[in-house]
From TrEMBL:
The keyword Signal applies. It comes from Catenovulum agarivorans DS-2. This is Glycoside hydrolase family 39. The keyword Hydrolase applies. Residues 1-20 form the signal peptide. Belongs to the glycosyl hydrolase 39 family. PROSITE patterns: PROKAR_LIPOPROTEIN (PS51257). GO terms for molecular function: hydrolase activity, acting on glycosyl bonds.
């Protein structure tokens, strides 16, 4: 096992053993205190009387699941009572296994034929299992569109490379006959309209390509070749449905590629060039998306300010960006590492806290969607889904900016929150988190204070409670707390693979013996899909120290009174506060 992983595993082991012994490492009974006796290292302020501080409404950005052609419609994500929505990848065929029975365009030995039933069979499978189709991806062209290509072993600037004929995900080449592709797409869209009705198909969106600048995995041609292909495809879709919603999916703006294509050139991120090209050529897009796979081993990928400024802002804030186009994230997972066609996910409470931090960045920058891979297993929510459960009841609330005073006791801890007011002004919902991108070990809880400026007079009565998402909120950590061998490397007599990161999911981290014990044991923990709430407590508002609060916020009316709540916020933990007027 790598030395760094072993040291981190030892640091994480103590709180897990305390959990197994029934000891609490994360007290979360909040306290409203009118005295100065409760000292907090970090204070979080929000002024709910300030119009300037009200920066929007919390929207549902985590309601779409992304599934490949191998996705099982019976395997539902965490929906929180909503109907499941799917983004269908590789709907047209062109799969890696070269099974052309799934292709919607085929060569029968004499002529090309359409096989749209293959696509509608897949669509019907989602609909029959009570999913809504959110988006159909027009990505890998069926294999028959490669007919006529000559392949070479070295770049010659004319012919595609033989090694790229079959990509990691299937056919990553543009159609040999662009006009045939245009006619085929028109016929496909018309087929959908005939089968499902114009109104239904207009409610679906169409994405052209998947992570196109991930070359050669998703695209083995050039940037300009994709732009031409995108325009040709958009024209075909809109020839049948002029009001169809269409867009594209790229990599982040910082993406660098070492791939040398058939022209002998390398190309980096496409998206900034795309928005410039689309404006110059009046080519429409209703949404533009990137992927985001932050690695828990790469601190800069977990720095939300840096992520926005380097990966997103060069696209979203590009002067040529269509202001009416939704900016989105179409593939997301917090991971330990990438595999050839998959990943090892983070399965600890680090994931819960990270998603809260990501959510704040998204809401404050109007990033409209984050499509997810699986976030539920056998009825239990993944760590990020637990945070989404807490967020779901905040949808529709008015979002407010907040200020922070003081400093965490633990170096590197990021303590912040999402502050909102109920639409009917009956109270407030706050989601706080504690994350550290440099040190993944669990450490002492941070004393925090929430200070909320309200328009109620001093002495107004309110009730409040808090739910905590922590190490006890997911199956993997409950199991590791009970079975020490799950935390001990195989080389030392345990069940854990020697190269497994301490936050890795059990399915990737444990050997066969450990996995067998997990399968036999996990039912005893029940379903992890509910928040753990404290008891409701009652308190009254205090006189507002308006000059102090306004100085921190640089805004606000200074009228009303102050709600103060003190608590302990453990490492890699999310806390949701409900505050209601009595």
């Amino acid at each position: 096992m790598k030395i760094a992983n072993l040291k981190l595993l030892h640091k994480m082991l103590l709180p897990l053993l305390l959990l197994a012994a029934g000891c609490s490492t994360a007290p979360f009974q909040p306290k409203a205190d009118n005295s100065q006796s409760a000292q907090a290292s970090t204070q979080l302020f929000a002024d709910f009387t300030s119009k300037q501080a009200q920066i929007g409404t919390i929207y549902d950005f985590f309601d779409v699941a992304v599934r490949t052609e191998r996705g099982n419609p019976k395997g539902k994500p965490a929906t929180f009572g909503r109907k499941a929505k799917v983004n269908t990848v590789r709907m047209l065929g062109g799969w890696y296994n070269q099974d052309i029975s799934g292709d919607t365009y085929q060569w029968d030995g004499e002529k090309y034929i359409y096989n749209f039933a293959a696509a509608t069979k897949r669509i019907d499978a989602w609909l029959d299992n009570d999913w809504d189709i959110f988006q159909i991806v027009l990505d890998n062209p069926p294999w028959a569109f490669q007919r006529g290509y000559k392949f070479v072993t070295e770049p010659d600037g004319k012919h595609y490379l033989a090694k790229d004929r079959v990509g990691v995900y299937g056919n990553g080449l543009p159609p040999k006959d662009a006009q045939a592709w245009n006619q085929y797409i028109q016929a496909f869209i018309q087929h959908l309209v005939t089968k499902y009705g114009k109104e239904t198909v207009l409610s679906w969106r169409f994405r052209i390509g998947s992570e196109i600048d991930t070359r050669p995995q998703h695209w083995a041609a050039t940037r300009q070749a994709f732009f031409d292909h995108y325009k040709n495809t958009v024209n075909a879709v809109k020839a049948v449905l002029p009001n169809a919603t269409v867009g594209a999916h790229f990599r982040e703006a910082t993406h660098k590629s070492q791939y040398v294509d058939y022209t002998g050139n390398k190309e980096d991120a496409y998206a900034p060039y795309f928005v410039e090209w689309a404006k110059q050529n009046q080519v429409p897009y209703d949404f533009l998306a990137i992927s985001y796979y932050p690695h828990i081993t790469h601190p800069h990928e977990m720095d939300m300010q840096q992520v926005y400024q380097t990966q997103i802002a060069p696209i979203l804030e590009h002067p040529d960006y269509n202001p009416n186009a939704s900016f989105e994230i179409h593939e997301y997972k917090f991971i330990v590492k990438m595999l050839r066609a998959g990943f090892v996910s983070v399965a600890t409470s680090h994931n819960s806290a990270f998603f809260a931090m990501l959510s704040k960045m998204m809401l404050e920058n109007n990033i409209q969607e984050v499509f997810q891979w699986g976030n539920m297993r056998a009825g239990s929510y993944s760590p990020e889904a637990m945070t989404q459960l807490a967020l779901h009841r905040m949808v529709g609330n008015k979002l407010y900016k907040n200020a922070i005073s003081g400093a965490p006791n633990i170096e590197g801890n990021i303590i912040d929150g999402i502050f909102s007011q109920k639409a009917d002004k009956s109270g407030f919902d706050i989601l706080t988190f504690n994350f550290n991108k440099e040190n993944m070990s669990y450490q002492k809880p941070e004393p925090i204070a929430l200070e909320l400026t309200t328009n109620k007079p001093a002495g107004s009565q309110f009730s409040y409670r808090v739910a905590q998402i922590d190490q006890t909120s997911n199956l993997d950590q409950l199991f590791m707390a009970e079975f020490p061998k799950a935390n001990i490397p195989q080389s030392q007599g345990g069940w854990r693979k020697d190269d497994a990161h301490p936050t890795a999911s059990i399915t990737h981290a444990l050997n066969k013996t450990g996995l067998k014990v997990f399968q036999l044991t996990k039912a005893k923990y029940g379903k992890i899909n509910q928040l753990k709430w404290s008891e409701w407590q009652e308190a009254t508002t205090q006189v507002s120290a308006e000059s102090q609060v306004n100085a921190k916020l640089q805004a606000g009316s200074g009228k009303g009174s102050l709600i103060k709540i003190y608590n302990q916020l453990p490492s890699f933990t999310v806390q949701k506060y409900q505050v209601r007027w009595r």
